[in-house]
Amino acid sequence: MASSFVFGDTFREGVMNLLERGSMPGDLQDEIESLLKQEQPFVLPFSTARKLHRYLKDNGFPVYLHELLEDSSVHLPHYEPPPRNPQLVARLEQIKAKLANEEYMRITRNVDPQEMNRPGTLADIGRQVRSVKAAVITVFNFLVTVAAAFACAYLGSQYIFTETTARVLSAVIAASVVGLAELYVLVRTMEGELGEL
């Protein structure tokens, strides 16, 4: 909290003029003389400023205190934060380390170091081959089903349509419907397999 002013040359000159008149009380005069002798920053306590204001007001001087303090500023002391409690600092560091460790464990919970260091085995290769084989059979089955639906619709539509364009169009529509139905069943099956993992 502020308790003093940092005064400038206007205050210094005005107070020197007041001191030359010589009618100032002894204790106030001593305080002001000691203030004028100090080195920068020139600090004027509020208590001395109040005494000087009372003196100027009581004796009817044409100079007012606010005119003397025109180029002055309020002196704010440097804030010194209180020292932190070492037990609190140690506890905060412990909590930070614990939170960092929990975060690390959460991130690495699905990492198996033995799996990373072990080279691929024949069982791993067999599992991968079975997975690829199942995918290839599924795609082949899809293609065969769509082709069979196309052929069946093309050959069956010869009894309804005489033009080739109409027969091809009906075969494409039938193959598309069968293909979409096959995709729906395939997606539902894969969702079930992924849910089991």
Explained architecture:
By secondary structure, the chain is mainly alpha-helical. It has two domains: 1-111, no CATH class; 127-196. It has eight helices and three strands, in the order E-H-H-E-H-H-E-H-H-H-H. The chain has helices at 9-21, 26-37, 46-59, 65-68, 86-107, 113-117, 122-156, 164-196; strands at 4-6, 43-45, 73-75. The chain has a three-stranded antiparallel sheet with strand order 2-1-3. Helix 7 runs antiparallel to helix 8. The longest helix has 35 residues, at 122-156. The radius of gyration is 48 Å and the shape is elongated. It starts with a strand and ends with a helix. The model has no long low-confidence stretch (mean pLDDT 78). It is a multi-pass membrane protein. This is Transmembrane protein 199. It comes from Paramormyrops kingsleyae. InterPro entries: ATPase_Vma12 (IPR021013). It is found in: Endoplasmic reticulum membrane.
